[in-house]
Amino acid sequence: MKKFISSVFVIFIIFSLLPVSVFADSDPIYIYDEANALTKEEKAALSSSFQKLSENWGIETKVFLTNSPNGTKLIFDAENIYTEKGIKDGILLLIDCKAKNAAVFAGGEAQKIFQEYECDELAYTVKTTMASKGISSALYSFIAAAGSKISADMISLSGFNGSEHIPDQRLVPRFVDNACLLSASEAKELNKLLDDISSRHNFDVAIATVDYLDSRSPRDFADDWYDYNGYQQNGILFLISMGERDWAISTAGEGIAYFTDAGQEAIIDKILNDLSKGRYSKAFVAFADSCDKFIKKGESGNPYDVGNLPKGPMPLFYYVVCIAIAVASGFIGTGALKGQLKTVFMQDRADTYVMRDSFHVPQQKNVFLFSTLSKSARPKDTSSSSSRGGGSSSHSSSSGRSHGGSSGKF
């Protein structure tokens, strides 16, 4: 009898644990890290970003990290793992951490968005970023690039409501370097600077680089990047595309008022030379510093605009030239005057120049006759900022959100 009761109790315990096990197995997994390539904190943060990306667009997006791939080609392994994990409409990123290689496979409905060559482009982005900045940065680059591509295709569908797919939290770092323009240390320092400025002002300041744009214009690409990567309501994004040598600025919320059209032009004028000459780190840091000043000015209620734009320091070269010209002019002028005084000699007293009894002052008096006083009103400045070409222009993005911004070539 005791054995029977014990057996029943054991069976009861086993069956009571089954729902817990089933529930645990039903929790979605987005990152399979067999290579132990990520820290616990990195995996948690990245899993949250992959989850939001998947839920926003209805496309399963997962990662498999390994040190020992099975097949002769990584893409075949990616396809097999995609099938084994039971992914239906989604995309799988497989990374060989040891060889620093990557492959991307898309299946089901995701194949309509990610064709074979586009999967290869994503894999290339991951490989190049991983080689210079590590696996964690490579995964964030994948999230940003995949999200941008998904949003572009979803936007093209009739009746698409982009506002429903704006993430409520930021998915990627404030600096995403898909074009791999900065070193790992430079990217880390820039992200730290952007995070500091953004935190102090509760205002996102972000920079992104890509290899190529898609069918969207630079302005639209920047707007969608800002919206669908989860940046907050108030902010500014600077985007450059190396393939087309395009730059674009997208402003949102208070950023539209803080960064007027004239203000954006002033910032670009400051960094354009460095961009054109490939000094990207210097240009990005200058952009971040300028944003800090513009946000402070905007928070004061008087943003930089036509007539009150910040004046940059005059280059040292101009000071040197001005001093040299002044010294040369002084020597030439005094030298010429001195050359004319050949018959003049120094005198100890002034008696030589005065004729005796030659100075006589007759009686004089001042008589006031009349005065005239005229007054005129000081002209008032009645022109507005818009009439002077100031202020901010705005437009609507694919999500329906209002944005300001500008674009050009470098």
Biggest sheet record:
6 strands, mixed
Measured between the Cα atoms of the first and last residue, the distance is: 87 Å
**Which oligomeric state applies?**
single chain
- In DSSP terms (H or I, runs of 4 or more residues), the helix count works out at 11
Name the strands of the widest sheet in spatial order: 5-6-7-8-10-9
- Average pLDDT, all residues: 85
Radius of gyration: 35 Å
Low-confidence stretches are 18-25, 380-388
Task: Quickly give the structural class.
Answer: alpha/beta
Give a count of the beta strands, DSSP E runs of length 2 or more: 10
Can you tell me the overall shape?
elongated
- Estimated share of beta-strand residues: 5-15%
Fraction of helical residues: 40-55%
What is the structure about, briefly put?
Strand 3 and strand 4 form a beta hairpin.
Provide structural commentary:
This protein is α/β, with parallel strands linked by helices and 410 residues long. The chain contains eleven helices and ten strands. It has helices at 2-26, 40-57, 74-84, 116-133, 135-155, 184-201, 218-228, 254-258, 261-276, 280-299, 316-339; strands at residues 31-33, 60-66, 90-96, 101-107, 175-177, 204-210, 235-241, 246-252, 395-396, 402-409. Strands 5-6-7-8-10-9 form a six-stranded mixed sheet, with helices on both faces. Strand 1 (31-33), helix 2 and strand 2 form a beta-alpha-beta unit. Helix 4 runs antiparallel to helix 5 (135-155) and helix 9 runs antiparallel to helix 10 (280-299). The model is unreliable at 18-25 and 380-388 (pLDDT under 50).
